[in-house]
């Protein structure tokens, strides 16, 4: 058995070192066909092992079929034997289409039609335990030569984490021909991890030095095991090298946690900012305590859900307070055209929430200006009504909005993971803040909003139609909440009560920043997000972290009730 593994390692090394030359001389299918026709078991093992240097995708299905007795030898009319694979449905006689192993093409009968054979009439290609072990070695190392770099890196990392000494020659051979930087780095780590198992002390010290240089997080557990083994065996030099490598990994981990926490805090603060920015206008500028602000978020999220279904297969809706169902037909789009649904949903979410907000202002809010308690109770009732409408229309259960491909996945740098959706919300929040600032300071509407909010009576005397300004201002704030809902649909489920999860955080963010101050809202949202993520990282308890953030906000408001920035206007005493 030891002789077999030694020979297998030698052949693996040779096969990978000469992989390009072997691929040029023979295809993977032709190699498997030659192995199937070989009579001596040792010869079959030698031929199969040559496949270690190939990344052909046909290898895995053919070798698996061989192990499952699904490869056969067909005796051609000329007397030669052809390795074949049967596929497709069986006919009444049990015959299936025969495909040549070496070409992958159907075998033709003398009539010119595809040949159909019965498995029971053929001889299955033989295999034994040694051959199956050789096949397993090929399959385990198959992805080392795949053209997909990410798949190749995953294969290297899997081999390295197993610390299988028998696969070290294959990795060393691959390292000589690897060109992708990510795969080269993974190979260095994998080779060093396997060399930790070496009985040779200089080799083990060199591996520990390499792992200290790489200081990857994945090497922490193997290094701890190596340290424990060195201490047990009383090898001080190896133990010191292992400690140095572990210290390097710990230092790297602290850096990753710091910047990871910073990014998560920034993204959480951006989520709070996107959600609270609309409230900063309706509550901060207009002084209206709108408890239905969360439902404006839900309107934007459900609009995104509807747009997604209209781009896809369509959807069924119920008309509220009736038993009548309505089917909205979809466009049945696919590919990149379907992926554009979110780009279309963003402005529609703003418009839908703005229309609902304007309707709320015209029907309820305009009668309750300067009556905060009544507006609070009325909008709370409106929020309950809207939640019930969502349930009657879309159902009580949450609905799932799939993220487009350009918002899925992540980018990893130095083990710090940057999710595309989180990166998007940071940029999205910055874009909205700049947009709101431009609207309020650089447009006629912004001038009218600031005039009415500072002194409604004087603005009315100057000929400004204050009722129309109030309506547009409330619509703007509600529309911003709809934009927040469009994004929140990408990071969680959409449900009738989703807005209630953010309403408290919205008011908290606006009050801490200073009522009516956009800059204060930005600083407050980012500060709360960073504090929340930092405390969770330090305390390792999300609930306790949130409690401490809330207590800190309460203490801050006791010291500074007006928030970070105090808004001054003629209408405030």
Strand content: 5-15%
- Cα Rg: 34 Å
Q: Count up the helices.
A: 23
**Count of beta strands:** 9
- Give the termini distance in whole angstroms: 92 Å
Order of strands, widest sheet = 4-3-2-1-5
The gross shape turns out to be flat
Helix content: 55-70%
Question: For the residues shown, what is the average pLDDT?
Answer: 83
- Spans where pLDDT lies below 50 across 5 or more residues: 1-25, 569-573
Sheet having the most strands? 5 strands, antiparallel
The assigned structural class equals alpha+beta
Description:
Helices cover 64% and strands 7% of the residues. The chain is an alpha+beta fold and 573 residues long. Among the domains are: 73-124, no CATH class; 146-234; 259-302 and 343-399 and 422-559, no CATH class. The strands form 3 sheets. A 5-stranded antiparallel beta sheet has the order 4-3-2-1-5. Strand 8 (410-413) and strand 9 form a beta hairpin. Helix 10 (201-214) runs parallel beside helix 12. The N and C termini lie far apart (92 Å). The model is unreliable at 1-25 and 569-573 (pLDDT under 50).
Question: What are the key terms here?
Answer:
alpha+beta; single chain; two-stranded antiparallel ribbon; 573 residues; disordered C terminus
Summarize the structure.
By secondary structure, the chain is of the alpha+beta class. Helix content is 64%, strand content 7%. Among the domains are: 73-124, no CATH class; 146-234; 259-302 and 343-399 and 422-559, no CATH class.
């Amino acid at each position: 058995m030891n002789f077999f593994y030694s020979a297998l390692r030698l052949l693996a090394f040779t096969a990978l070192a000469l992989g390009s030359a072997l691929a040029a001389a023979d295809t993977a299918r032709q190699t498997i066909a030659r192995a199937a026709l070989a009579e001596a078991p040792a010869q079959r093992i030698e031929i199969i092992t040559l496949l270690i240097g190939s990344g052909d995708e046909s290898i895995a299905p053919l070798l698996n079929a061989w192990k499952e007795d699904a490869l056969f030898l067909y005796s051609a009319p000329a007397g030669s034997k052809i390795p074949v694979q049967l596929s497709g449905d069986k006919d009444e006689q049990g015959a299936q289409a025969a495909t040549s192993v070496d070409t992958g093409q159907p075998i033709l009968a003398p009539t010119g039609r595809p040949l159909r054979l019965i498995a029971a009439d053929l001889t299955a290609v033989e295999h034994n335990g040694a051959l199956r072990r050789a096949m397993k070695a090929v399959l385990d190392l198959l992805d080392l030569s795949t053209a997909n770099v990410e798949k190749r890196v995953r294969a290297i990392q899997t081999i390295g984490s197993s610390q299988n000494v028998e696969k070290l020659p294959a990795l060393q051979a691959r390292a000589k021909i690897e060109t992708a930087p990510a795969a080269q780095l993974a190979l260095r780590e994998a080779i060093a991890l396997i060399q930790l198992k070496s009985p040779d002390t200089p080799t083990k010290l060199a591996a520990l030095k390499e792992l200290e240089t790489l200081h990857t997080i994945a090497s922490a557990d193997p290094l701890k095991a190596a340290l424990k083994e060195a201490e047990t065996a009383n090898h001080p030099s190896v133990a010191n090298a292992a400690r140095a490598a572990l210290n390097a990994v710990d230092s790297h981990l602290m850096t990753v946690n710091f910047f990871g926490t910073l990014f998560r805090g920034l993204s959480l603060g951006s989520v709070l900012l996107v959600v609270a920015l609309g409230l900063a206008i309706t509550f901060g500028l207009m002084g209206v305590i709108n408890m239905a602000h969360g439902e404006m978020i839900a309107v934007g999220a459900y609009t995104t859900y509807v747009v997604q279904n209209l781009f896809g297969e369509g959807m069924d809706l119920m008309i509220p307070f009736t038993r009548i169902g309505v089917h909205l037909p979809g466009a049945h789009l696919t590919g990149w055209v379907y992926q554009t649904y979110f780009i279309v949903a963003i402005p529609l979410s703003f418009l839908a929430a703005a229309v609902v907000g304007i309707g709320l202002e015209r029907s309820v809010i305009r009668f309750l200006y300067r009556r905060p308690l009544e507006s609070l109770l009325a909008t709370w009732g409106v929020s309950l009504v809207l939640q019930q409408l969502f349930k009657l229309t879309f159902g009580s259960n949450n609905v799932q909005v799939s993220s487009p491909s350009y918002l899925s996945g992540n980018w990893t740098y130095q083990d710090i993971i940057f999710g595309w959706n989180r990166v998007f919300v940071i940029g999205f929040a910055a874009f909205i803040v700049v947009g709101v600032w431009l609207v309020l300071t650089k447009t006629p509407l912004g001038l009218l909003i600031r005039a009415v909010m500072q002194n409604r009576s004087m603005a009315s005397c100057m000929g400004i139609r204050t009722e129309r300004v109030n309506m547009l201002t409330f619509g703007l704030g509600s529309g911003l909440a709809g934009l927040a809902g469009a994004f929140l649909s990408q990071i969680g489920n959409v449900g009738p009560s989703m807005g209630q999860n953010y309403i408290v955080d919205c008011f908290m963010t606006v009050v801490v920043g200073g009522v009516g101050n956009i800059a204060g809202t930005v600083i407050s949202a980012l500060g709360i997000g960073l504090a929340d993520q930092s405390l969770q990282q330090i305390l390792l308890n999300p609930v306790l972290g949130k409690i401490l953030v809330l207590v800190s906000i309460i203490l801050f408001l006791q010291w500074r009730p007006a928030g970070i920035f105090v808004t001054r206007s003629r209408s405030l005493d």
